[in-house]
Amino acid sequence: MGKFSKLKKVQQQETESAQEKMEWEAAGAKDSSSDESSDESDTETKPQQSTEETRKRAELWTNRERVLVLCSRGADVRTRFLMKDIKDLLPHAKGDSKLDQQKSLNVLNEIAEMKNCTKVMYFESRKRKDTYLWMSNVEKGPSIKFLVHNVHTMKELKMSGNCLKASRPVLSFDDSFDKKPQLKLIKAVLMQTLGTPHHHPRSQPFVDHVFTFSVGEGDKIWFRNFQIVDESLQLQEVGPRFVLEMVRLFSGSFEGAVLYDNPNYVSPNVIRREHRKGQHAYIEKQLAVKASNVKQAKVTEILAEKTVDLVGKEFDTHENVADASEAAAQITSQIEKRRVRKKKAQAPKYTGATD
């Protein structure tokens, strides 16, 4: 009986250990299922939060302006670097390959629609010397053609200022933009093209630089980019810098009627032709003749005016003319006497000897 009792005890222990294992496995399965359910709940909450954020941002991002920035084939190095700087400054800009000059400019409207862009900045290069900038509104127009002068890029200038990439700029315009209708239209186009939309996905919620537009002689527009250093509003130039001279203003996008033609605009080809022919020398000569005539007329007017001698007789030299003539006569007589004495001294003395 002792052996059977021992066998029963061993069987009971094995059954108890098997039950404990089953209980442990069941508890582990519950824990794993709870962990998996928690992970799934976390993964579900994360996309929900991200979707909520995107929805909020999409609701706030109402201005969906996008700018297509590209250039033509044959553009020089400075134009390409300027285009790159503008792309870096505009987070809502999109690029594209170079456009062949043989194609018409209406192709840019189709490219902008494919890229889902509403504005276009096209740098057109001619003869590898002249650079023209087109700014256009793709949907309804207008479009403006500029001649670009005095281009200086960021790498060329190496200014001390610096700004965050993709930060929103402040657009500062001169008061003269509100004086003429064509300048008002240019101001609206520049604001819509270069202004970064609020709550844009690629933009940063910082304002640390200023785009300044000032009107110079001949309605030329000077562009500068400055950094806002601190709360004292001190400015340091970042770059790039260039000057825009308006050529024409069209009603449509790269087409349409001419709304304004700049009378002060002179083609660079005409300037180079005059320089080669030497007409500039003739013009300078004519300007010098006119300046000399004006100067001579002023001199004659001054000489014709009668002036009163306020000093009186102190500067009247007519009374002392006789005294001056007597003194001069005495000096001349003394000089003549000295000459006579020298001649007598140099003359040989008579000794009476004969040869």
TrEMBL record:
Coiled-coil portions: none
One function term, GO molecular function aspect: rRNA binding
SMART domains: Brix
Keywords: Nucleus, Ribosome biogenesis
Organism of this sequence: Caenorhabditis brenneri (Nematode worm)
Gene3D superfamilies: Probable brix-domain ribosomal biogenesis protein
Residues in Brix domain copies: 65-255
GO CC terms, sorted: nucleolus
Region (Disordered): 1-57, 333-355
Principal location: nucleus
Name this polypeptide is given: Ribosome biogenesis protein BRX1 homolog
Presence of keyword Nucleus: yes
The family this protein is said to belong to: Belongs to the BRX1 family.
Annotated GO biological process: ribosomal large subunit assembly; rRNA processing
